[in-house]
Design brief:
Strand order of the largest sheet: 1-2-3-4-5
Distance between the termini: 63 Å
Number of helices: 8
Helix content: 25-40%
Order of helices and strands: EEEEEHHEHEEEEEHEHEHEHEH
Structural class: alpha+beta
Radius of gyration: 24 Å
Strand content: 15-25%
Length: 334
């Protein structure tokens, strides 16, 4: 297989995230000025490579077993790879597919029958773990009472923009994991403008399964990612729960407690919890606490967990009475 690194410019540097950055070779071909700030980057994996340019935004990738895409072929040409070598790589990749394809399909079929699985996902280019040196992002996470041991990411400012688009909005990257593999992510922008989130989420995914401990008897289901992070719960990331999400949550074998946001949309989650015969908790939190994360900021993690378990209710009649109470409270608030 082609060792693409041998065709990269001699002047390059490695990043902590495993990328090699160098002066991008694509910019002049795409109508931009020549890159002189090492804004191009490539990352190798066991099965291929990914390329991203922060100057002209050109991207390309290659995975063994797939045809070389038009964009990947163009990049290899710009790097000086001979046409015959490019064709050899493509042919070798197709041979790999023919040899391994049937076995791979069988493995995927088995995984589907055995349980829920999600494909692995690549994090944004030049992502690095957030540390105190990333002042704005670090302070945002501390203000949200986010756990310091979760691998939040930011875009490495030494290799690319810490935002997207012309406005260069700063953001934190929250990796989505399942069975300790990255299967998606969300970018949470640090300002108050919309959109606040950009998600790359596989269908049926529930955030926080890797936060659970085998010895726990209960699992708390919330709406938001930072709600789940604040108490090591789960987040469905909507005000409803899909059938696939419900199956995944049930597979944990725990007593399920659903904690909705205390707003009109959140009350819709109560209806779905009742349909699934799960417990619901709607604690009487202090003024200004709309969700679990707000409560943790005011009451602390332990205090919030206590209020959730004390307000836990399984009776459908009592849940409906509580829901009506909160509807009235929300209406008066508005």
């Amino acid at each position: 297989m082609l060792d693409i690194l041998t065709y990269l410019p001699a002047k390059r540097k490695a990043t902590p995230g495993g990328w090699l950055s160098f002066n991008a070779v694509c910019c002049t071909h795409n109508g931009n000025t020549q890159d002189r700030r090492q804004r191009g980057g490539i990352k190798q994996t066991e099965q291929g490579w990914s390329y991203h340019c922060f100057n002209c935004a050109y991207t390309a990738s290659f995975i063994l077993g797939r045809n070389l895409s038009f964009k990947a072929r163009r990049l290899l040409t710009w790097l000086g790879v001979p046409e015959a070598e490019i064709e050899r790589v493509n042919l070798e990749s197709m041979r790999h597919r023919s040899i391994n394809g049937i076995l791979q399909e069988r493995r995927q079929t088995f995984d589907t029958l055995a349980g829920i699985s999600f494909p692995e996902f690549e994090l944004p280019a030049f992502s690095v773990v957030c540390t105190p040196k990333h002042t704005e992002a670090w302070q945002y996470l501390r203000n949200r009472s986010a756990p310091v041991d979760y691998p939040f990411m930011v875009t490495d400012p030494d290799n690319g923009s810490i935002g997207v688009g012309a406005s260069l909005r700063s953001y934190v990257i929250v990796p989505f994991t399942y069975d300790n593999s990255v299967v998606g992510f969300t970018q949470r922008f640090l300002d108050d403008r919309t959109p606040r989130y950009i998600n790359q989420t596989p269908p049926g995914y529930v955030f926080g399964t890797d936060l659970q401990h085998d010895s726990w008897k209960h699992v708390i289901v919330t709406e938001g990612i930072f709600d789940a992070l604040a108490i090591s719960g789960l987040a469905v990331m909507h005000n409803t729960i899909s059938d696939t999400q419900a199956r995944l949550i049930r597979s944990l074998g725990r007593d399920v407690v659903v904690v909705p946001d205390q707003d009109t949309a959140g009350m819709e989650l109560v209806n779905r919890a009742v349909e699934l015969n799960w417990a619901v908790s709607m604690p009487e939190w202090p003024e200004g606490c709309k969700d679990v994360n707000d409560a943790v900021i005011k009451l602390g993690r332990l205090g919030t967990l206590l209020t959730i378990m004390q307000a836990r209710e399984t009776s459908k009649i009592k849940i409906e009475m509580k829901r009506k109470h909160f509807f009235a409270k929300i209406k008066n608030r508005n």
